[in-house]
Design goal:
There is one protein chain. The protein is built from ten helices and six strands, in the order H-H-H-H-H-H-H-E-E-E-H-H-E-E-E-H. The protein has a six-stranded antiparallel sheet. Strand 1 and strand 2 form a beta hairpin. It has two domains: 84 residues, no CATH class; 158 residues, no CATH class. It starts with a helix and ends in a 7-residue tail after the last helix. With 287 residues, the chain is α+β, with helices and mostly antiparallel strands.
C-alpha cells in the first residue's frame, strides 16, 4: 500500500503536474493577449506601453520583453505589427489587402502618425438595449457619445445622441404637409381643432423644415413612464476620427489568443460620407 502511494505521488509530479502547468501557461497567455478594455485597445492602437502600471511597480525590463514577446511574437515589435493584433483575425482575412495596407500606412506614417484618445469627440458607442414599452419587450439601438464636461480637468460623460426602434420611428412615409390656413389668426385659430384630431397627419402642425427626432420621442416616452430600461445586450464602437476612414470595434469573448475588443470592419469614407454614415448607421439626426 505504501509503495502504491509513492507510485501515485511520483506519477502526479511527473505527468499530471506538468500538464496542469501547461494549462496554466496557456491560460496566462490567453489572458495577456486579450484586449480587455477599450482604453487598452486605444493604447495598443497608439503603440503605447500597455504594461506601464506593471513596470512602475516592478521595474523589470527583462520581464517586460517577455510579456511583449508573448503578445506580439517579438520583444520589440514595430507599430504596424502591434496594430495588426487589434484586428479580429476572422475579419482580417476577408479585408481587401490594398485597403488594409493604405490604412496601416496612414496610421503609422512617421511624419504624421495618428493616435486615438478617449477625449476624441468623433467616436460613438452603439448599444443594443432590451426595453419594455408599455409592458412589451422591444429592442432599442441607442447611440452614445463621450463628451468633455470640463476641458481643464478633462472630466467627461457619455450622452445620448441618437436612437432607433420601430416604436419611435415617427417619420411619415408620405408627408401630406398642408399647414394651417393663413387667415386662421382672424378666426382665433379654429383650424387647429381638426388638425389636432388628425393623429395620422400631425406634421400638418409644423414647418416644412421640421425635423422629427426619435431621441426626443424616446425621452418623452421615458418621462411618460411608457419605457422601462432592462439591459444592454451588446456594445459596438464606431471610430470616425481617422481622416477618410471608419472602423468598428466589437468584443470577441472567446478562448483564443485573438480576443477582446478588436476591429471587426474597416471602410474608407470621405468626410461627407461620414455625415451620411452617422445618419444611417448611428441614427444621429443632427451634428
Amino acid at each position: 500500500m505504501k509503495n502504491y502511494i509513492i507510485i501515485c505521488v511520483v506519477f502526479f509530479f511527473q505527468f499530471l503536474l506538468p500538464l496542469s502547468l501547461i494549462a496554466q501557461t496557456l491560460e496566462d497567455e490567453l489572458r495577456i493577449k486579450e484586449v480587455k478594455t477599450v482604453a487598452e485597445f486605444m493604447r495598443r492602437f497608439n503603440n503605447k506601453n500597455i504594461f506601464q502600471g506593471y513596470m512602475s511597480m516592478q521595474g523589470d525590463s527583462v520581464q517586460l520583453k517577455k510579456l511583449l514577446a508573448t503578445i506580439y511574437g517579438k520583444p520589440n515589435p514595430n507599430r504596424q505589427e502591434v496594430l495588426a493584433t487589434v484586428f479580429c483575425r476572422d475579419s482580417l482575412v476577408k479585408m481587401n489587402h490594398n485597403l488594409l495596407r493604405d490604412f496601416l500606412g496612414q496610421v503609422t506614417n512617421s511624419l504624421s502618425p495618428i493616435n486615438l484618445s478617449l477625449s476624441d469627440n468623433n467616436w460613438y458607442a452603439e448599444l443594443t438595449c432590451r426595453i419594455l414599452y408599455k409592458g412589451k419587450e422591444a429592442t432599442l439601438l441607442l447611440t452614445m457619445r463621450r463628451e468633455i464636461d470640463n476641458p481643464t480637468t478633462q472630466a467627461a460623460s457619455w450622452v445620448a445622441v441618437g436612437c432607433y426602434s420601430y416604436l419611435f420611428s415617427v417619420k411619415p412615409q408620405k408627408p401630406s404637409y398642408k399647414g394651417v390656413n393663413p387667415a386662421s389668426n382672424e378666426t382665433n385659430f379654429l383650424a387647429l381643432t381638426p388638425i389636432f384630431r388628425d393623429k395620422d397627419n400631425t406634421e400638418n402642425l409644423t414647418s416644412k423644415n421640421f425635423v422629427y427626432s426619435n431621441l426626443s420621442t424616446l425621452l418623452y416616452a421615458v418621462k411618460n413612464g411608457d419605457v422601462e430600461f432592462k439591459e444592454v445586450r451588446k456594445i459596438r464602437y464606431h471610430f470616425l476620427q481617422v481622416p477618410n476612414w471608419v472602423f468598428v470595434v466589437e468584443n470577441y469573448a472567446r478562448n483564443t489568443t485573438n480576443s477582446g475588443w478588436l476591429i471587426s470592419t474597416l471602410e474608407k469614407k470621405s468626410e461627407a460620407e461620414k455625415v451620411i454614415y452617422k445618419q444611417k448607421k448611428l441614427f444621429i439626426e443632427s451634428n
